[in-house]
């Protein structure tokens, strides 16, 4: 079981690692409101990764196929929300870099929004769909709780690193660079959201 946990941890870390829309959201919130806002967002994403790991390890083929079947509307909703969040980053004036600065928003909202976005993120859906047979070969079907724990810890580890590094840079960056990075994260989120909507509905 220890080997299975390590393998699931590596999978969770690897899936979280690419700097996609959820990573940009974590960076943007850390820049805007500090380490805890970014970490809460990351833990929401890690919880969603753990859920998909449970589905994969338990061999819920019917659930998996149903999730993939609903990929288009789920992705469309996620794309709209990403575009909304990106526009929010562009609209807000960058605060002075200090812990807890920026528009007031609780960690529960950060957690739940990142959780929902990760569940509807097409890249996450497709990544875990590819793991169903692999995790079965590793014996994950016999120990789904080990896979869930490993995937969650691996994903959470990456979000802890990303939020921590971003928070350190936040305290040390000149205000001009800080504002530029925050606007860049917002623009990238907006572009990601519009790209997801376009590829699923306009150019499908």
UniProtKB/TrEMBL annotation:
<feature type="transmembrane region" description="Helical">
    <location>
        <begin position="74"/>
        <end position="91"/>
    </location>
</feature>
<dbReference type="Pfam" id="PF01810">
    <property type="entry name" value="LysE"/>
</dbReference>
<dbReference type="InterPro" id="IPR001123">
    <property type="entry name" value="LeuE-type"/>
</dbReference>
<keyword id="KW-0812">Transmembrane</keyword>
<keyword id="KW-0472">Membrane</keyword>
<feature type="transmembrane region" description="Helical">
    <location>
        <begin position="111"/>
        <end position="134"/>
    </location>
</feature>
<feature type="transmembrane region" description="Helical">
    <location>
        <begin position="146"/>
        <end position="169"/>
    </location>
</feature>
<feature type="transmembrane region" description="Helical">
    <location>
        <begin position="34"/>
        <end position="62"/>
    </location>
</feature>
<feature type="transmembrane region" description="Helical">
    <location>
        <begin position="184"/>
        <end position="203"/>
    </location>
</feature>
<dbReference type="GO" id="GO:0015171">
    <property type="term" value="F:amino acid transmembrane transporter activity"/>
</dbReference>
<dbReference type="GO" id="GO:0005886">
    <property type="term" value="C:plasma membrane"/>
</dbReference>
<protein>
    <submittedName>
        <fullName>LysE family transporter</fullName>
    </submittedName>
</protein>
<keyword id="KW-1003">Cell membrane</keyword>
<keyword id="KW-1133">Transmembrane helix</keyword>
């Amino acid at each position: 079981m220890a080997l299975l946990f390590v393998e699931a941890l590596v999978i969770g870390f690897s899936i979280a690692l690419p700097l996609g829309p959820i990573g940009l959201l974590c960076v943007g919130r850390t820049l805007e409101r500090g380490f805890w806002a970014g970490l809460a967002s990351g833990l929401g994403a890690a919880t969603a990764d753990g859920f998909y790991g449970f589905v994969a390890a338990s061999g819920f083929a019917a659930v998996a196929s149903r999730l993939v079947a609903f990929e288009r509307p789920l992705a469309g909703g996620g794309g709209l929300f990403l575009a909304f969040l990106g526009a929010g980053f562009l609209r807000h004036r960058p605060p002075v870099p200090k812990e807890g600065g920026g528009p007031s928003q609780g960690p529960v909202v950060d957690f739940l929004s990142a959780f929902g976005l990760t569940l509807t993120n097409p890249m996450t859906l497709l990544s875990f769909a590819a793991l169903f047979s692999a995790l079965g070969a590793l014996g994950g079907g016999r120990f789904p709780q080990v896979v869930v724990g490993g995937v969650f810890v691996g994903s959470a580890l990456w979000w802890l690193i990303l939020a921590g590094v971003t928070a350190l840079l936040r305290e040390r960056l000149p205000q001009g660079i800080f504002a530029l990075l925050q606007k860049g994260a917002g623009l990238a989120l907006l572009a990601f959201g519009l790209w997801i909507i376009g590829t699923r509905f306009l150019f499908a």
